[in-house]
């Protein structure tokens, strides 16, 4: 599959590569200022945040550690199941004395992050905050806000820059909306398999 084939499935580009670059730079500058002199651990939530994480960490100009967690809250559908399970925990177990910053692709219902934040809070970090590239405030079902938000977006299902639909489109360099007919096609294909 080449990029053009993927791009044909996109109805609208919400955030271009240039816009994403500016957003990530701004967040990096803010984080650099806020965490100066502190032991910072960036906790990337797999897989959606990997592209954002890779760009964001290079815009942070103070020493920082990175770690990864994987939780599942979504199947191949576009709505949250509500169930959240840890698939991969942090490698680091020395969290006391550290400032954790959870790096997430998108804050939607808020269930995933609220669960993750609770688990990590119980390990007694110095502080714990959330940095999300995208925020869909209209979709929130739990009381949770991010401390750093790249961009608030309307209630539309978006892909690219790490975000997927049924594991597809993560490698698109921009954030866009998938055409309903593409979603229908992918669901049909996966039903056939
Ligand atoms: P929440 O628990 O409902 O906040 O779901 C957060 C997770 O759902 C994100 O980390 C994404 O993996 C996924 N998600 C929510 N909205 C979208 C979207 O528009 N596109 C792709 N993934 C999404
Ligand atoms: Mg995710």
Short description:
The chain has 5 helices and 9 strands, in the order H-E-H-E-H-E-E-E-H-E-E-E-E-H.
Descriptive terms for the model:
alpha/beta, Rossmann fold, 3-stranded antiparallel β-sheet, binds inosinic acid, binds magnesium ion
What is the first-to-last residue Cα distance?
A: 18 Å
Look up the CATH topology. Rossmann fold
- The value of Rg in angstroms is 17 Å
Number of strands: 9
Low-confidence stretches: none
What's the CATH class label? Alpha Beta
Query: Which molecules are bound besides the chains?
Result: inosinic acid, magnesium ion
**Strand coverage percent:** 25-35%
Overall shape: globular
Widest beta sheet: strand line-up? 4-3-2-5-6-7
**Structural domain count:** 1
Order of helices and strands: HEHEHEEEHEEEEH
SS element count, helices = 5
Helix content: 25-40%
Under the CATH scheme, the architecture is 3-Layer(aba) Sandwich
Largest sheet properties? 6 strands, mixed
